[in-house]
Amino acid sequence: MKSPVVTFGLAAKAAALRARGGAVPLQQRVELATIALRTVPTDEEARRAVLDFLALVQADPIGAGVAFDRFVENWTAVHVPPASPQQPVFDWQERADLQ
């Protein structure tokens, strides 16, 4: 089962990075909107950020990408739980000389 938060977060990050690169084709903008509606339909903040991004990206892709990337970073910090520290699997992973 796919996590809606991860699915949206990855799609949003990819769109922000594409925009920062200079352009986001129409097909990818439609995909972002579709993913947002399917994965986080009740998240008003995410919907507003996607709408703002889509409204600005054609005229100012870099500015839109920077702003959307900032949103994605803040949004994922709230919605994605921090990873738990991974326990060593093998004894050698705890060796002092490898730390």
- Poorly predicted parts: none
Q: Please tally the β strands and state the result.
A: 0
**What do the pLDDT scores average to?**
90
Number of helices: 4
How big is the Rg?
A: 17 Å
- Give the H and E element order: HHHH
Explain this structure:
With 99 residues, the chain is mainly α. The protein has helices spanning 4-20, 26-39, 44-56, 61-79. Helix 1 (4-20) runs antiparallel to helix 4. It starts with a helix and ends in a 20-residue tail after the last helix. The model has no long low-confidence stretch (mean pLDDT 90).
List keywords for this structure.
99 residues, mainly alpha
Describe the secondary-structure layout.
Blueprint: H1 4-20, H2 26-39, H3 44-56, H4 61-79
Helix pairs in contact: 1-2, 1-4, 2-3, 3-4
Concise structural overview:
The chain is an all-alpha fold and 99 residues long. The chain has helices spanning 4-20, 26-39, 44-56, 61-79. 64% of the residues lie in helices and 0% in strands.
